[in-house]
Every structure is written in C-alpha cells, then in structure tokens.
Amino acid sequence: MDIKIQILNRTRQGLDVFHHYLGVKFIPNRSFKNPLYNDTKASCSIYLNKKSGIYMMKDFGDPEYSGDCFWLVGKMLGLDMKSDFKQILRRINEDMHLCIPMDVTTDNRNGNWQTNFAEPKPRSFANTASESYAEPKVDEQLSPQPNVKLAYKEFSEVELQYWGRYGITASTLKRFKVKSAKSLTGVSKEGKKYKIYSQPNEPMFVYHTIDEAVKVYMPKNKLRFMYAHRPSSEYVYGLEHLPARGHMVFITGGEKDVMSLAAHSFNAVCFNSETAVPPINIIENLHRRFKHIVLLYDMDDTGKKSAARIEQALRAYGVKRLELPLAGTKSEKDISDFFALGHTADELSRIITELIQKIYRKSSVIFKSCELDYANPPARSSSVVEVNDVPVGTCDNLFCLTGGEGVGKSNFVAAIISGTIAESALDAERTLGLTIIPNPSGRAVILFDTEQSEHQLYKNVRKAVKRAYLDDKPDFFHAYHLSEQSRKERLDIIRTALDMNFHQHKGIQLVIIDGVADLVRSANDELESVDVIDELYRLAGFYHCCIVCVLHFVPNGVKLRGHIGSELQRKAAGILSIEKDTNPAYSVVKCIKVRDGSPLDIPMMSFGWDKKEDMFVYMGVKAKEDKERQKINDLKSIAQGIFEKVDKLTYGEMVKAIVDAMEIQPRTAKDYIRTMRDKAIIEQLSDQSYQLKIF
Fold it and tell me: InterPro entries this protein is in (predicted)?
C-alpha cells in the first residue's frame, strides 16, 4: 500500500499530524492563531478538503502557510517536498509511532512505498488537547488499543552491557520499570497474527509509565518503537521519578536519555515527540516544582530547530535550551551518546553553569555591585543549626530568628555564620550555645543585609571571621548590602545571587536575610507577606539550603507579630527569640518553634558581653525555675490568644486553635492544654467545655 495513504489512513486523513506538530488546541473549520509565526489575528484554519478527502491548512493572514500535513512537516523541519519527501514520510512515521515498515522499494517522486505484509494499526498519537477539542464525528474514528502480548525474560549480559555504555545500571533499569522482552505477539488490522522474537543482535526492551502505558523499544530494528498499550492521556516518561522540588529538570528526546541523566544524578522527563510542544499542564507542574526547565534535545538539525521553536513557544515558563558539544551524527547527537563517549557528569555540570551565567549576564552587573569587597574596606559611614541536639535550621526549610532592638541579634547571626565558615567544627560555647554543622566542602554561605549600612555590614562580617578563628574572609562567604536597593530589586538580587553562587560553589550551605520584613512594603500586608515567604521557601527547596530569616520584631509571647511574622511562624521549621534577661547585661535565647516536640521543653540559653574576648560569649543555660516560669508565661499568652474572641471552647476546638496558632502537632497542643489545666490557666465547666481563668 502507498505509504502516504497509510499515513493518512492512520492519522484521520492528516488531522492528527496537524495536531501533533502544531502543538496548539484547535477545532477543524474554526480560525486560530498560527503558531508558526507571531500571528496577531486568528485567521488560520484546518479544514477537510471535500475534493481530495484530506485535511488542509489555510492561513488567510499569510497565504504562504497553506498546504497539507506533509507540507507542514516539511516546512517545520526545513525539508523540500520534492527532493526530501521520503524523509518527511519517515519522520512522521517515527515521530508519531505509526509503526509503518519503511524497508521497501520506493518511488521518491510520489512517495509510493509498497509493503508486503500487514501491520497492526496503532492509534495516531495526537496531542490530547486536540482530542478534547475535536468534533464528535472525528473522535469516533479513534482506533482501539493494540492487540499485543509480551513475554518477558531476564536481562542478558549483552543487554546490560548495551545499557551500561550510557551509565545505565541494572538498578536504574529496575527503578524505571524497564524489562527485557522475550517475544511480542500481535494481531494486525486484517486479523493476521504476527510474532517478533528478541535476538542477541536485536534486543527488545519494554518501557512502563505511571499511567500504564507500555512502549516497546527495539534499538537495532528498523521499526524501533511501538506501543503494546497506549497512555490514557499525554505520554510522559520519568515524571514519577522526579523529586517534589528541585533546582533543574531536563526535557529530553527519549526514554534512554531520561535514564542516562538519572543515572548521573540529573532530573529528566521526555514526551512522545521532541518536535511537538510538550503539554502545557505538565509544563506548568514542572514550573512550580523546579527553578529551571531546560530542553536537552538531539544535536542534529531537526533537534536544534525543534528546541529553538519550543523554547520560543514556552518562553512564558522560562524554558531554556542547552546544546551539547556533539557533532550531530547518528552516533553522536544526544545526552546518552555524550556519556557513552566518555564525558562525565562534572563536564555536563560545567556546561550547565555556562548556561546559567549566560542567563544572568545582564542582571549580574547589579548584584555584583552590591557584593562586599572585603579586601577593600568601605569608607566610613557609607554599612545549619541545632539547640541541645534538636534541629531548628534544616536544609530545604526556613529558620526564623526574632527579637527587638539591642538584644544582640547581629552577634548571634555572626555566631551562626562562624560555624559554617570555620575550617573545623566549633564548640557550642564559641557559637553562643548553638551546634553549627561544619561546611568542609566550602559550599556557599551568603548574607543579605537589608537595613544596615555597608560599613556596619563590614563590621558584622569581621565579627564572624574573628569568631571562626580566621584571618581573612573565605571565598565561599559572600555578603551583600541591599539597604539602598528598592524592595523589588532586593528579592531579584537574592534570587540571582543564590543561583549564581549555587553553581560557582557547587551548593549552598546557609543563607541569612537580616531584615526579612524589608522585602515587603508593610509587615501587615497579608498578600505580599504570603508571596515573599512562599518565594523564600521555594528558594530553600531549589537550592537545598537553610534560609535564616531575621525578623526585627519583639514577639507577643510565643506569637510573631505582623502578617509576615504569621507566615514565618507557619512556614519556618524552627524559630528562636532573643530578648533581654532580667539582668539587662545578658540576653536570653528561647525556642518558640521546632519541627518535632515542644519548644517549651528546650532550655533557655543566655549570652553576654566579655571585655577580654571583645565579643559576646555563652553564659550557659538558665535555671530550671526560670525556664518553668517562662513556660507558664508563654502558656498564659497562648491561652489569652485563643480565648480572645470567645468565652469558652470544647477540648477539640482548643486543640485546633492551638495547632492553627502555633503550627505544632496535635499531640503537642494536648500537652499544652494539660499543663494549662494543671497550672490553673484554664478551667473546665460543667458542660465539659473550657474557659480562661482570671489571673
């Protein structure tokens, strides 16, 4: 049968080809904007030509964009309809997995390729967006699932060696649910049975996806791909293996590339075709979860053109493309070939770093001008963490440090920094009672100061360097003064500096934002506070670091002030509050929130100024009586807060109110209620509800 006719028959007379390659939603006979150029008016349509019986494209805005589906593919791939028609047919067959055998005699002028045996008719793999917008009569023509059965076997040594060339081990194959097939049995459109056996020189592998799609891959066969079971929606491979949040995800051209990247500790997915625009709903999901989405397509002409076109189509999501230093030949064109040729993950990381630097080349001028030049002190007058083995500052999370003016917050911040820049672990006494995890690999430590002068920032950095027993500032420690930048520029600079330093120092150990409230116009602006804290939380996840947010407010008991304080109380994994002791020469550090357990059970620490050391020093843990007194005062504050607008609450309502107010576990809230009752802070009424006692 004529190959051209077979393609038309299997693609609803070419309609599926238009859906597949255009990558936009459209309904036949209705006008839409042409995605092939910057179309401003919907004057393009796909219609059924009654004379020829096939679907055609007509653009009244630009008559040059008119023709059948074969013309469209040739136009997009830069192929000539006369001289390259055979290649156009082959690309449609491969990209849409139509499974039409092409190893036969041809007539290049007409594309009349004859076949000698029947093959099963797979469904045309159009974008699901087209299915949801198609007319009812067209939908009824969708073909059923392929009638294919597979017999499996263990991977042979030769097969494992094949995958091993790309760094893909047996454990990676198991993780991605790849199996070795012994044979494939199917029934053709005409009802004839056929069987394909795996051979040592022609192996057969099977991919399984989360939506139960089953795809057969025969790398040495001219018919490389076919479906044993089609996906229920958009075909996407590797999505279920991605982390919840991360720094970068690649979109590749095939399943082998996804596994090769995963085997080298990179995140990746692939779709049904690298020539079609990926489904927008999945791109939106990836955009929420990852800082960067990068196209990593084949280095042949088709791959490069497709990547450039899709990058433009998805520019609203910040999608970028990365080109590999490969020749673009059959054996040297994709990322799996890159690793097979002996290139390493470190080499790929360096190429990625160059891409990141290119992205931020313009904006880096601004943030670099804000970096403290420690070797040249500024002119005068122009300025991760445990407590008693309980984590308060952890990777991927926010850690809040709060307190009023003059309580020693800057010195406490310097103590935290000193533990991350020291050459070896510092004693807890040196870091004012905190246990700071050392940073032997020299990952970036970044300090942003939003309110103090450059000169004062220099003094604070010097305190941290001195406390760490160092003579000079390490190269991986960066301090930025943002007081003279606008609020919008401050957050932009923070984003840029984190991304640049993450790649320069192969990770980030700690980020401190001294004056987080200065990132919003008002600490009581609820919407802006939510947006800023959510963004900081996302950044902590992107770079797998701890972000310390210093809030210059005196807390109301155990409740942080302002909407930005409320958001920090909700999102932060740990909160420490610094306040003056009864003896004003000392400051007291108390825990307001920890992820596990009750913060009221953690001892209070104190520190004060030592003239001999010329710095604040650790003064020890407060007496148990002081801690108990403070605990009762904090519980009174909590009780007053939950009974502020009501006279009485049931036990369950009290638990919920405390959980909502404090962002703690229900079991901890129940412990609070028990202590409140024992200390006569609340009393139980005859109807089993509770009220606040007068004290």
Answer: P-loop_NTPase, TOPRIM_DnaG/twinkle
- CA atoms of 250 and 184, how far apart (whole Å): 32
Q: Look up residue 320 and give its two tokens.
A: 């970028």
Can you give the length of the chain in residues?
Answer: 695
Q: What DSSP string runs through 81-109?
A: TTTTHHHHHHHHHHHTT------S---TT
Alpha-carbon Rg for the chain, nearest whole angstrom, is 32
Q: Could you name the CATH architecture of 246-359?
A: 3-Layer(aba) Sandwich (3.40)
What CA–CA distance (Å, rounded) separates 156 from 569? 55
Please state the separation of Cα 45 from the chain's center in Å. Answer: 37
CATH superfamily of 388-622: P-loop containing nucleotide triphosphate hydrolases (3.40.50.300)
Write b or e for each residue in 336-354: b if 16 or more Cβ atoms lie within 10 A of its Cβ, otherwise e: bbbbbeebeeeebeeebee
* Assigned token pair, 192: 């004839």
* Percent of the chain's residues with pLDDT above 90: 44
Beta strands in 42-153 (DSSP E): 44-48, 55-59, 67-68, 148-153
What is the distance between the alpha carbons of residues 563 and 619, in angstroms, rounded to a whole number?
A: 34
pTM: 0.59
Please give the C-alpha separations between residue 16 and each of 27, 130, 161, 630, in angstroms, as whole numbers: 12, 8, 38, 71
Looking at per-residue pLDDT, the higher value among 2 and 206 belongs to: 206
Burial class (CB in 10 A: 0-12, 13-18, 19+), 290: buried
Range with the poorest average pLDDT among 326-340, 427-441, 572-586, 594-608: 594-608
Burial environment of residue 90 by CB neighbours within 10 A (0 to 12, 13 to 18, 19 or more): middle
Instruction: Please check whether the domain covering 632-692 is classified as CATH 1.10.10.
Output: yes
The answer, yes or no, to whether residue 238 has pLDDT greater than 60, is yes
When pLDDT is cut at 50, 70 and 90, the band that residue 319 belongs to is: very high
3-state DSSP call for residue 592?
strand
Tokens of 596: 């596990």
**Looking at residue 50, what is its pLDDT?**
82
